[in-house]
């Protein structure tokens, strides 16, 4: 099959570890189902994999990708990327994401357990759907299950250009929140305002302290996130693009009874609820660009440059 895969690991130069071309279909459990991929999308996770974060030499070559929508058994479906068991599969200590243990979505076909396919409403295109399973699902769980966003509440989203961040702004707005978003780039601040957020420079003072912070930048913004959180508010962390060893002012955490919460991906039920919200609220994912799958390397280069706003989608 034609695939984009990690042929080696390169912590310093992840793009040098990427190969695009024919690869023999890897082994997967016999009772899994095969989805013909029609659209896939990239995530920062794919770059982490090429750097060897969460992916070992012994698993190579590994087909990359966590996001896909396609066709299974004549049905239009969305692929849930978390492979795990239990009521909340994200808490299964043995859970994996596609492309960590089992081949990912950047290929002609992807194989998953039958419970990991969800029927896709006709109103949502493959291109839009392919944006949802990782970044959008992560943002949804951060705001709802983990962040417990109150009705009429307020949200700060750090690093406005990323896939999770743009999703969080659109979803928080659709859920009725007042939304603030920071970015180092004036261009991204203008773009995020158009999605319904009040845009601020990174580190700027907010007009109010917020109920929930969506934190994926990590070291560079965590202190600001803590300063911007209201008494009893929640800082929900799902990523650390700028560094994972950060300093926390514990005085604020205990005096203001703040909660710092981790969050990772989401459950199949949360993905189905997100799909419903997208269909009924009429919102659509923010897409930076759509390319034919053969041009996947260019999409990786754009992701690595950090100059993207929203999702990088590939049509198969
Ligand atoms: N736990 C999970 O389930 C999960 C799921 C999805 C993603 N993630 C993680 O979440 C993070 C975000 O991923 P993503 O794909 O949405 O986007 P991304 O491409 O990592 O987003 C980058 C954003 O981070 C900001 N940023 C990067 N370096 C920075 C720095 N040194 N200082 C300040 N801001 C910086 C940039 O904001 P500006 O340029 O706008 O300032 C940029 O828009 C990644 O680390 C990813 O691995 C985790």
Automatic annotation (TrEMBL):
GO molecular function: oxidoreductase activity
Pfam families on file: ADH_N (PF08240), ADH_zinc_N (PF00107)
SUPFAM superfamilies referenced in this protein's UniProt entry, alphabetically: GroES-like, NAD(P)-binding Rossmann-fold domains
Domain Enoyl reductase (ER) as annotated: residue spans: 13-314
InterPro entries (alphabetical): ADH-like_C, ADH-like_N, ER, GroES-like_sf, NAD(P)-bd_dom_sf, Zinc_ADH-like
PANTHER family per the UniProt record, alphabetical: DEHYDROGENASE, PUTATIVE (AFU_ORTHOLOGUE AFUA_2G13270)-RELATED, PTHR45033
Name of the protein described by the UniProt record: NADPH:quinone reductase-like Zn-dependent oxidoreductase
Lineage of the species this protein comes from: Bacteria, Bacillati, Actinomycetota, Actinomycetes, Micromonosporales
């Amino acid at each position: 099959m034609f695939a984009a895969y990690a042929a080696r690991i390169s912590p310093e130069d992840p793009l040098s570890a990427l190969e695009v071309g024919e690869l023999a279909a890897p082994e997967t459990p016999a009772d899994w189902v095969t989805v013909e991929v029609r659209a896939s999308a990239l995530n920062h996770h794919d770059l982490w994999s090429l750097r060897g974060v969460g992916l070992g030499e012994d698993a190579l070559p590994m087909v990359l990708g966590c996001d896909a929508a396609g066709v299974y058994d004549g049905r239009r479906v969305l692929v849930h990327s978390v492979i795990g068991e239990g009521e909340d599969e994200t808490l299964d200590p043995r859970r994996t994401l596609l492309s960590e243990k089992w081949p990912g979505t950047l290929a002609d076909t992807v194989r998953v357990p039958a419970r990991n396919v969800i029927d896709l409403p006709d109103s949502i295109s493959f291109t839009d759907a392919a944006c949802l399973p990782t970044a959008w699902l992560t943002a949804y769980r951060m705001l709802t299950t983990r962040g417990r966003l109150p009705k009429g509440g307020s949200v700060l989203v750090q690093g406005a250009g990323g896939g999770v961040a743009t999703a969080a702004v659109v979803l928080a707005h659709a859920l009725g929140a007042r939304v603030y978003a920071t970015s180092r780039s004036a261009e991204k601040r203008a773009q995020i305002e158009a999605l319904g957020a009040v845009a601020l420079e990174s580190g700027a003072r907010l007009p109010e302290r917020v109920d929930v912070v969506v934190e994926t930048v990590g070291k560079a913004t965590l202190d600001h996130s803590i300063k911007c959180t209201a008494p009893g508010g929640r800082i929900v962390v799902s990523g650390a693009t700028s560094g994972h060893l950060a300093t926390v002012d514990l005085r604020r955490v205990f005096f203001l009874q703040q909660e710092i919460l981790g969050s990772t991906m989401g459950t199949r039920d949360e993905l189905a609820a997100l799909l419903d919200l997208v269909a009924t609220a009429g919102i659509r994912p923010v897409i930076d660009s759509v390319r034919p799958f053969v041009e996947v390397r260019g999409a990786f280069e754009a992701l690595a440059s950090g100059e993207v706003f929203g999702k990088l989608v590939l049509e198969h």
